Amino acid sequence: MTTPGHRIWIDLDNSPHVPFFIPIIRELEAKGHSVLLTTRDCFQVCDLANYYRLKHKTVGRHYGANKILKLLGLFWRTLQLAPLILRNKPDLSLSHGSRSLVLLSSLLRIPTILLFDYEFARWLPLIKPTLGLAPEAIRDPRLAKHFKKGLHGYHGLKEDVYVSSFVPTSSPRLELGLTEHDIVTTIRPPAREAHYHNPASDRLFAAVVEFLGSSTSVRMIILPRHGAAERDEILRRWPTWCEERRVIIPDKVLNGLDLISTSDFVISGGGTMNREAAAFGVPVYSIFRGELGAVDRALSETGRLVLIRTEDEVRLKIRPIKRTRVRQDTVREQSALSDIMTTIDNELSQIRSGHHTERTPTR
């Protein structure tokens, strides 16, 4: 007799979550489970989900940087999600930091695994997800208190989950009219609306553009986080360089992994793109000025990530040169995905046997 699969809810509320969860979704479906996928309309999440042809239901949006509006938006999106989740009755929920999923799962007593890779994220008060799952570089035992069943670790980076199986799907240089002789850098501005944002990152971003714009051979592919408003701001601030295509803002969604793999170096005010570049072995510079997490500290200590802390360091540390591409003959590390799936399988086994700490909704 075949054991029926489980119904699993995954919520994508930020753009890095889209490529991260694709291999996990494939593994779950290959094991006979069904996946309910929800998305939040912000930061190109929906565009990326459509780009990868994911079947998803969009619920809610981003409510900006204002703390009160953020809090109200959290509760409103949770209410918006409730009818859909009540109808589908998932056995387990997964997210990489979705507060709406964590809150609703707690209210409906749905077991949930919360993945994260930045230990200074804000936790919802009085609510404990079932289990935490993070890279082994995050070893602070104090984090375990935020979860009913503690904190588990996995080898490598979150980005190893999908970079390890990366196959190019497009040619960004060709699409953007660039040549192999151009020095290409992909740049991601700071996340201004994030709770961890430091205005110093904005000053470093401006210093980066000013420094690289002085070189006629460098092409900056800038990927705005906040849509048309940020795009217009860049166009107004550096109109000549935009016209001369020293600054290029793509007018459609491009595969970020394709961009990184073809870049000579990467600069970002966030975390995911920096770690994706590190996973590829592409030179990468971080202009993130929030509290530095354990994963980025480890990458910096091993020379896989260069931290830029001041405007002087922009000129001293960034090397705008062509990257020497080394042929990779070895298979990339697969243990991150394997470790994550083992943890998920163990939780599903406990649900199946009826030994789980949560009471899952009945079908």
Task: Describe the model.
Strand 11 (265-268), helix 11 and strand 12 (284-286) form a beta-alpha-beta unit. The protein has 363 residues and is α/β, with parallel strands linked by helices. Mean pLDDT is 88; it is low at 327-332 and 359-363. The radius of gyration is 21 Å and the shape is globular. The chain has helices at 17-30, 45-51, 67-88, 99-108, 160-163, 172-175, 199-213, 227-237, 239-243, 256-262, 272-280, 294-301, 311-317, 335-353; strands at residues 7-12, 34-41, 57-61, 92-95, 112-115, 131-135, 151-154, 183-188, 218-222, 247-248, 265-268, 284-286, 306-307. 39% of the residues lie in helices and 16% in strands. The chain folds into two domains: 7-164 and 334-353, 3-Layer(aba) Sandwich (Rossmann fold), CATH 3.40.50; 172-317, Rossmann fold, CATH 3.40.50. The strands form two sheets. The protein has a seven-stranded parallel beta sheet with strand order 3-2-1-4-5-6-7, with helices on both faces.
Task: Please give a quick description of this structure.
This protein is α/β, with parallel strands linked by helices. The protein contains 14 helices and 13 strands. The chain has a 7-stranded parallel sheet with strand order 3-2-1-4-5-6-7, with helices on both faces.
